[in-house]
Amino acid sequence: MKFSTIIRQHWAALRALLVFTVVLGLAYPLLVWLIAQAPFLSDKAHGSIVEVDGQPVGSSLIGQLYIDADGNPLPQYFQGRPSTAGDGYDPMATSASNLGPESLVDAPDKPSLLTLVCSRSTEVGDRDGASGARPYCTGGGVGAVLSVIGPRD
Length: 153
Fold this sequence. Notes:
Shape: elongated
Radius of gyration: 26 Å
Distance between the termini: 68 Å
Strand order of the largest sheet: 1-2
Number of strands: 2
């Protein structure tokens, strides 16, 4: 292979790198940003911030419920994860439930993550006419999963 061929190939690769960097790294993000600034999109592009007395207090996109008037989950949406925001939109209470794999014990005012997941799975199965059963869920109700998993050391 001649040295001039190697130089030509490297020069072509460098030009392609520069073109793709400009198009995909500069022009495309700028175009998407400009489209997002359109009047009908700019609120969502800026996070749909809710303000009270001129102070930002949260986002209207957080804490949405995907249920119908009777409280049934809407089938066209994925259901959100458990949240401490409650049933209504409360931007001051927006946070995760902090439930994790070790959250197995149910409290009267705070069911475990596993109980929430099992109950949602059963509801989806009932609604869709399919089995909502999971290997770690039991039919015995709240806290029944402890009999399957066993005591913790």
